[in-house]
TrEMBL record:
<dbReference type="GO" id="GO:0004730">
    <property type="term" value="F:pseudouridylate synthase activity"/>
</dbReference>
<dbReference type="InterPro" id="IPR022830">
    <property type="entry name" value="Indigdn_synthA-like"/>
</dbReference>
<keyword id="KW-0378">Hydrolase</keyword>
<keyword id="KW-0479">Metal-binding</keyword>
<keyword id="KW-0456">Lyase</keyword>
<dbReference type="InterPro" id="IPR007342">
    <property type="entry name" value="PsuG"/>
</dbReference>
<dbReference type="GO" id="GO:0005737">
    <property type="term" value="C:cytoplasm"/>
</dbReference>
<dbReference type="GO" id="GO:0046872">
    <property type="term" value="F:metal ion binding"/>
</dbReference>
<keyword id="KW-0464">Manganese</keyword>
<dbReference type="Pfam" id="PF04227">
    <property type="entry name" value="Indigoidine_A"/>
</dbReference>
<keyword id="KW-0326">Glycosidase</keyword>
<dbReference type="GO" id="GO:0005777">
    <property type="term" value="C:peroxisome"/>
</dbReference>
<dbReference type="GO" id="GO:0030597">
    <property type="term" value="F:RNA glycosylase activity"/>
</dbReference>
<protein>
    <submittedName>
        <fullName>Os08g0504400 protein</fullName>
    </submittedName>
</protein>
Length: 350
């Protein structure tokens, strides 16, 4: 299904803003940006379409205008029609996962791009949307100290003044290092009605946050202060999954461990203790002979931007419907909180 053209006009910035979003922005109304990777790469059809529509409905019910962002035929779109949303949902992985680094290429080649958190933040800021709701953001991957696989979501948060509402990050990632990296990037991290940074499927991660917020108004004041001071950096509001939807943390965690093993990047990260010495000698020799040869010891050698979708898929398969349903519930809850924050912020500006 190829994306249809819209009634949105492409403005001077090369971005097509839907009439509804444009009108809301012009009157200083509440607008909430939404990403599209979650639709194309995060959930199966037709659940992805149903969820995307329900999330937009939650935003509307709470007084804000939803602005789902994607690149259609090379044109970045902010605010999609129902038909366009459907096209995204049906096309799924045919839409390229588009982070900041991929934007120029997808646009130049007239391609279709599903925007990740970094790319969605970029476009939201470009058109003046300060609030963005998603499920989970990317982070520092486990073994990130070796692979340097750190999501561009984190650097984007460091340099783009958009507030991202998420349920924290999944424990497929290294949560303590993700928080360290956000600190280095100067990102304000606040947890909503809790003192702990949530781990997506569970409310707990063992990591405390430097800032706790208890209402949308409190969040709006922080966003307002950030703007007034021209800090230039982003804000992450971490909202724990609603208690009634928290699937069994242990079951999901063990599924995550299994998936992690399958995606294992380094074949010698955990060698058997007894053969450690011999193994190291073998590896060094092998690497000297041929790097490719090592591949046969790697389980699947999933690397780069394929890791997150792979891990998310495996977790889904291993946990069955429970993780998908929990995922949908938490995104809708984030949409509710995000819309209320957008309304509170718009009230502060009036
Ligand atoms: N985490 C989730 N669900 C998602 C993603 C992350 O729980 O759908 C998506 C988001 O679009 C996020 C991206 O911005 O994956 C991060 O990918 P990477 O790790 O390759 O930067
Ligand atoms: Mn990565």
């Amino acid at each position: 299904m190829s994306p249809s053209s819209s009634s949105s006009s492409t403005g001077p910035m090369g971005v097509a803003v839907s009439p509804e979003v444009e009108a809301a922005l012009a009157r200083g109304g509440a607008v909430v940006a939404l990403e599209s990777t979650i639709i194309c790469h995060g959930m199966p059809y037709p659940k992805n379409l149903q969820t995307a529509m329900e999330v937009e409905a939650v935003v509307r019910e709470n007084g804000a205008v939803p602005a789902t962002i994607a690149i259609l035929n090379g044109v970045p779109h902010v605010g999609l029609s129902g038909e366009q949303l459907k096209s995204l949902a049906v096309s799924g992985r045919q839409f390229q996962k588009t982070a900041r680094r991929d934007i120029a290429h997808v646009v130049a080649s007239g391609g279709n791009g599903a925007t990740t958190v970094s790319a969605t933040m970029f476009f939201a800021h470009k058109v003046g949307i300060p609030i963005f709701v998603t499920g989970g953001i990317g982070g520092v991957h486990r073994n990130g100290e070796q692979t340097m696989d750190i999501s561009s979501d984190l650097t984007e948060l460091g340099k783009t003044p958009v507030t991202v509402i998420s349920a924290g990050v999944k424990s497929i990632l290294d949560i303590p290092r993700t928080l360290e990296y956000l600190e280095t990037q100067g990102v304000t991290v606040a947890a909503y009605k809790t003192n702990e940074f949530p781990a997506f499927f569970t409310e707990v991660s063992g990591c405390k946050v430097p800032c706790r917020v208890d209402s949308p108004e409190e969040c709006a004041k922080i966003i307002y202060a950030n703007k007034n001071l021209h800090l230039g950096s982003g804000i992450l509001i971490a909202v724990p999954i609603p208690k009634e939807h928290a699937a069994s943390g242990n079951a999901i965690e063990s599924a995550i461990q299994k998936a992690l093993k399958e995606a294992e990047y380094c074949p010698y990260s955990q060698p058997p203790a007894l053969s450690l010495y011999l193994f190291c000698v073998f590896v060094i020799l092998t690497e000297m002979i041929s790097n490719d040869f090592l591949c046969c010891f790697r389980d699947k050698n999933i690397i780069g931007n394929a890791i997150t979708p792979f891990m998310l898929d495996r977790v889904k398969v291993l946990t069955g419907r429970s993780s998908l349903e929990a995922n949908i519930a938490l995104v809708k809850n984030n949409a509710l909180v995000g819309a209320k924050i957008a309304v509170a912020l718009s009230d502060l500006h009036q």
